[in-house]
Here is the input.
Amino acid sequence: MGTAPIALQYGFFYFFAGLAILCAILMVCGRNVVHSAIFLIGSLLATAGIYLQLTAEFLFIVQVILYVGGIMVLFVFVIMLVNLDVASRQRQFNKQVWLAVLLTIVLGGELGLMTHVDGSIFNSVNAPQALPANTNEVATALFQTYMLPFEIASIMLLVAMVGAVLMAKRRGA
Amino acid sequence: MPLENEFVTRLKGKFGDAIREAWIDRKQSILVVDLKELQTLAHYFRDEEKYDFLTDLTAVDWPKREKRFDVVWNLYSFARNERLRLKVHAADGESVPSVIGVWPVANWMEREAYDMFGIRFEGHPDLRRILLPDEWQGFPLRKDYDILKQDQDWVRENLGIESGQ
Amino acid sequence: MTDTHIERVPGVSSTVLGADEIILNMGPQHPSTHGVLRVKLKLDGERVVESECIIGYLHRGVEKIAEHRSYQQFAPYVDRMDYVAAVSNGLGYCEAVEKLLGAEAPIRARVVRTILTELQRIASHLVWLGTHALDIGALTPVFYCFREREEILKIFEKYCGARLTTHAFRIGGLQYETYDGFEEEVKRFCVDFEHKIDEYSTLLTENRIWVGRTKGVGILSAEDAIALGVSGPVLRASGVAWDIRKAMPYAAYDLYKFEIPTAPSGDTYDRYIVRMEEMRQSRLICLQAIENIPAGPIMARIGKVLKPPPGEVYHSIEAPKGELGYYIVSDGSTQPYRVRVRPPSFINLQAFDRMARGSLVADVVAIIGTIDIVLGEVDR
Amino acid sequence: MPYLLPVFYGIVIVLVLPLLAGYIVLLERKVMADMQARLGPMRVGPHGLLQPIADALKLLIKEGIIPAQADRWIFLAAPLVSVTMALLAYAALPFGPVFQIADLDIGLLFILAISSLGVYGIVLGGWASNSHFSLLGAMRSAAQLVSYETAAGLALVSALLLGGSLSMKSLVEAQDQAGAWFIFFAPCGFFIYLVASIAETNRAPFDLPEAESELVAGYMTEYSGFRWSLYFLAEYANMIVVAGIATTLFLGGWLRPLASFHGHILGTPIEILDIFPVIVFLGIGGYCFWRAPRQPVQIQKLVMVLFGGLFLVLAMVMFGSLFVPAAMPGIHGAFWFIAKVLVYLYAFLWFRFTFPRYRFDQLMKLGWQFLIPLALTNVLGVGVAQVLRQQLGWNAFAAFGLTLLATMGVAAWLITLGDRRDRLAAAAPAGGD
Here is the structure.
């Protein structure tokens, strides 16, 4: 992939980036919850595409398996289970619209300012072309370099899960 | 052939006039009892005489008779391996006590008897037609039920044509 | 009358979602209601709270028809009730009318009747086994069952020309003598059939999935079974060893040795076991009977025009599905004054509610299958 | 031109796969018929050989009905999602040492990720149909897929531990070097994957999403014609994918049985295995020619001869490639791969026609309370065995035998535990609430 011409690379990047943004906007604006979920999936997949283009294959796969294949399936599942007809009838834009516009302008201005003033922020890291077998590197990082934080994180997740199960059980009983 | 044995004398001693008739027809015992005493008799037959299995419940229409219906209970006793047929005479419109409390199996059978003969069973929790549609007119197994007229009416009403029969 | 099929996904208690009880409608057009049965289920989540069978879609007024036919003319009609076991229906009716006439079929006729009726019992149980297994998702047994049933139907066809609605017997005996090779064919079938039952057994009896789907499903206690008037294999699977063939022998059953299979717990699995064992017993009866078919006439002398003396009779036989009774009232004319059929399927189906309460929706299909109903008989 | 070969392979797969799926359906019907003492399709072509083509034509010209209440666009797109994901998974599947579209470094994860996306086709299709049957089928399907994916994934991990790579190609090569397929090292892993993969492809006895005695046709209820056939294609394509994964990870991929005995032309007795494909194709071809004169219709005779000729040509290709060292591994590898896939699929069919259907709660119980704990044990066991073998220098036989025994013990324990729980549960509501 590293050998692809630079124009092709740019093309792919803009395609994925545009798709991600478009899907994100459609997701927020859609009235039908299931449609929104589908657009969210599209946005996630487009982001995954960008990862792939950066030759971060493992990240790409994790994004697809976890977010798209796992979490979003549960989302869609729950959405279908509880029939959310009510939401589609409600007004989508509430009174905070002006606040949102203001925030958008501020954020956009900030970004523009930063790129304009100091362009080096966003191209400081030059990704090396074709990382060799980055699955191995991820594994090394997780299980050797950062073993302790990784294990602590997993134990915390486990605790949270057990807690959730317990709470759900108690309510049911 | 009238039925006269120890069983019938015992019954007559206990219930007196409630046992109207008793005879044997083709080796099968038949007992005609009083409609009012049916509940008591049913309990007695199940609990004391061990007729714990209600095989069948049906009716026969004799339109020329004053009380036109025979309501028939076919009982069976596992302990004695014997059958007994219980009958009451009921007039049109007269309610017959339901025996669901004694033999729960009577539920659908009573509904069927109601469906086919129009006999009302007092105390049935859910006396509706069972085999025929709810909106059916008349009671088909009565002898004066005109099957052709019913058919013609139905065809005219539902298909909008004259019946071919 | 739409076939809307509403169900909640397991694990989600309906109370959480704010929905209380759901009404679920199965049938009358549904692949596993065995015809045109319609069941209305009231559900709490996945559990059945209450059920109601709505029947009558196949009602033809058989009992009314009987009042407008002569005794002989009505005989073919009874085949159309339990059309899976037409021979048994015919036997019950013929014997009832014979009883009404005070006549008895000759011994040769009775033995042949016994053989054909037992073959019919096997055929009926085979249909039950195949469709019941198919409902639970076992695709293959149905083909094995129908393969063997085909052999039985071939024997019927050779004997009387019909396969399904046979009208095999006549009032007073038999119309036809047995054909050449009848004994050998029945014997060959019975001998082969032993291995065939084992074949079905291998597929199902100890299959973990089958046991899991049937054990503890649709339990009917002995007391409930008697109170609800249930008869036949359903009653025997609840532990009541009652079989009319033994209790009040008819045809030639008093001549043969056989067992009444029973099972203790009255669940779907037990009913399966009982019916399987019944097929084995039927096979043994056939083998005993075929060894020695007495010679002699096949028809009693009852005359061409049947005019039973006034009176009434109730006669019942052990049909494959349970007690099949005929209550016939005669007014002395050539036509019955009243014919009442005591249909086993109809009465057994009444116990469905008791079996289904508290079970899961997916078990309803298994419970309908295990009662072994034929809607032609339920609705008449 | 490095980009051209994968593109060519891709086109071949897209073109051949529907045909292959059609013939697998024919095979299924024939196997089913054989198990059920019937003949199966016999009318269209000799022995029903043209049945798949007739079926495909029928489906293509059938009217596609879109329910009025359906969510039109999702209804139209859902089958496409299903079939796209099913086909995408082939990108990383090695049909042989040569025939592989892309040897990804994360090949296995790629296939798993892509096939987990296939569930969207089912869920969205079921939802968009706006029918209770469809929605319920879709729900069941999604729940089932998500649960069994865990077990399947864990089962695969045992093979990954043995192979030490995620690339499909190097996994096969690892088995070549190990001298035995991974099924012999981790049989429990293989069988867990077998069960889980059947559940994942919604096949009997786990076919609850489309249980016709309960849910008519599940998520496909409202579909017809071409779109229905897309779902159908996706289902069979997925079956081939899971069979391909199992073949690659546990059954030695494209390797011939006894692959470590190298050599080519009739040197040792073991080389008879290299002739095996030739014998198989010759046999099939010969049978076709033998049956040809017995066909009742002229055109059927012709078709039979054509099929016979096809297999003879294949036999010749197989035989010829023995003498061309460059082509031999590719062609024979593909043969062995497809043969193993077919054997694996045969197990699918066998199960389908033998077992009744699970109830949904039983299905979930089997997945969560039996397969997943067992798969975890298996992974742990295989890991321990690897350590014993590599660090402590144990004999492979002893190490993996120990693991196998331990895993079987856990399985037995889980089964008795489950049975006891079932008995308790059965005893509890018997009193009636």
Notes: The beta strands of chain C are 22-26, 38-44, 47-54, 169-170, 173-174, 311-319, 322-330, 338-342. Residues 261 and 278 of chain C are 7 Å apart (CA to CA). The interface with chain B takes residues 55-56, 59, 61, 63-64, 67, 99-100, 102, 226-230, 240, 242, 247-248, 311-314, 316, 323, 325, 327, 329, 337-338, 340, 342, 346-347, 350, 379-380 of chain C (CB under 8 Å). The two ends of chain C are 21 Å apart (CA to CA).
